[in-house]
Amino acid sequence: MITIIDYNAGNIRSVQRACAEVGIEAVTTASPADVLRADRLIFPGVGAAPSAMDYLKKTGLDAALVGAFNAGTPVLGICLGAQIVLESSEEGPQKCLGLLPGKTVRFRLKDPRLKIPHMGWNGVRAVRPHPLLDGIQEGDEFYFVHSFYPRPAREDNVYAVTDYGGDFCSALGYKNLFAAQFHPEKSGRLGLQLLERFTRWDGSVATG
Amino acid sequence: MLSKRLVVCLDVRGGKLAKSIKFVDTRDIGDPIAKARQYYEDGVDELVFYDITASREGRDIMINFVEEVASQIFIPFSVGGGIRSVEDATRLRNAGAEKVNVNTAAVKRRELISEIARAIGAQSTILSMDIRKVTPNPDIPCGYEIVVNGGVTPTGIDALWWAREGEKLGAGELVINSIDADGTKEGYEINLTRMIADAVTIPVIASGGAGKPEHLVEVVTEGHADAALVASIVHYGEYTCRQLKEYLHDRGVKVRMNY
């Protein structure tokens, strides 16, 4: 059973429907107690980091998520959920969750033909092995919609990169957290497979 | 780099594929969701459902329809047709549509674009434009005019001006539908598509005129479009989505091939 954190930040139902498609029961919750009790968590989100952080703080979901992560609960972050797990974001002055060191930054593109938001299908290239990226091949594409991206401070937390006027981190991982800047729930079969792998993931990181 | 997108458009009335599309065998494609699911599995990158329902009851059926689509199709899809208010757009978005298309109502009341973009985000707000070629004149210097109400009512509005205005108002994407090319199967209106794509910084979906795979290559290369929209050539079964994508790929166009 998967628990999806509902913090008023968008695509909760899309994620739930994608889980149902691969036969996974997923419940949504806005309760910190439920988050702490969960077997595994999906932390989705679309929208802006500042308002999301304000909401998480107000509801106590921020502390619950940190607590669950520290207790070893496997966590899958998606899009905004891959950004606010870092310490801070250029989108606002608020402190973010800080599950791992790093900052979310805005695209700074030199090529005027490259548009912001980065929206559409783009390749995701695994740069180190991870159980959730098993089977992903060079050139496999996922669906993106975002103007900011996560930049972990430590290179070994970067698990996949995507080229958009240069490589940016499109998937990060640290202990029992894995987070994707792209949307597995909107990325067709490959995205659904990633969700399926998450349901079997024990939270440990493969060493290759 | 982002891939170029193959977009398939389905016309829907009261949750059924509309008769206005002249299918060879209507029995085979009476269920738009089954058809959409087939395209999804066959590699389409995005779907557009165009609601040609007029009544209020039809609107509610459309919401249910969108929820059903969202539980079966795990790629982005948009919904258009008769969206007149922020409430219409928000309901469709909440039902599972990634994006909504506005057209006639935005021409009649421009602020609608800004209002929808504020409510659901610019990236989810598509401005669809039905366009016909005219003799350039002081009111329509670019030589292409916006037509509304399903492409039948001229507006006297210059298409290039409207595209730029739409971007300023907050549209995150444009659909450029050539009324002249639509149904001809002789290719997209390349000049029109390129003129608009070069004038805005948001993505452009070219629509109208696709008859052969070469046409798709032309419009995403010479036409500078980010996406090519097709309807009848896949509905009729002349080509599959997979064939179109393979053709694009073989011609050196970056498209999503593993699906």
Can you describe what's shown?
The complex is a heterodimer of chains A (208) and B (259). Chain A has 208 residues and is α/β, with parallel strands linked by helices. Chain A is 26% helix and 30% strand. Chain A has one domain (2-200): 3-Layer(aba) Sandwich (Rossmann fold). Chain A contains six helices and 14 strands. Chain A is globular and about 45 Å long. The relative contact order of chain A is 0.18. The model of chain A has no long low-confidence stretch (mean pLDDT 94). Helix content of chain B is 36%, strand content 23%. Chain B has helices at residues 32-41, 56-70, 86-95, 104-108, 111-120, 159-169, 190-199, 213-221, 232-235, 241-250, and strands spanning 5-13, 16-17, 46-51, 77-80, 99-102, 125-133, 144-148, 153-158, 173-178, 204-207, 227-230. Chain B has a single domain (5-250), classed as TIM Barrel. Chain B starts with a strand and ends in a 9-residue tail after the last helix. Chain B is built from ten helices and eleven strands. Chain B is α/β, with parallel strands linked by helices. Chain B has an eight-stranded parallel β-barrel, surrounded by eight helices. The interface between A and B is medium-sized, with 32 and 27 residues.
Explain the layout of strands and helices.
The complex is a heterodimer of chains A (208) and B (259).
Chain A: E1 2-5, H1 12-21, E2 26-29, H2 32-37, E3 41-43, H3 49-59, H4 61-70, E4 75-78, H5 80-83, E5 88-89, E6 92-95, E7 102-106, E8 118-123, E9 125-126, E10 141-146, E11 148-152, E12 158-163, E13 167-174, E14 177-180, H6 188-200
Parallel strand pairs in A: 1-2, 1-3, 3-4, 4-14, 5-7
Antiparallel strand pairs in A: 5-6, 7-11, 8-10, 9-12, 12-13, 13-14
Chain B: E1 5-13, E2 16-17, H1 32-41, E3 46-51, H2 56-70, E4 77-80, H3 86-95, E5 99-102, H4 104-108, H5 111-120, E6 125-133, E7 144-148, E8 153-158, H6 159-169, E9 173-178, H7 190-199, E10 204-207, H8 213-221, E11 227-230, H9 232-235, H10 241-250
Parallel strand pairs in B: 1-3, 1-11, 3-4, 4-5, 5-6, 6-9, 9-10, 10-11
Antiparallel strand pairs in B: 1-2, 6-7, 7-8
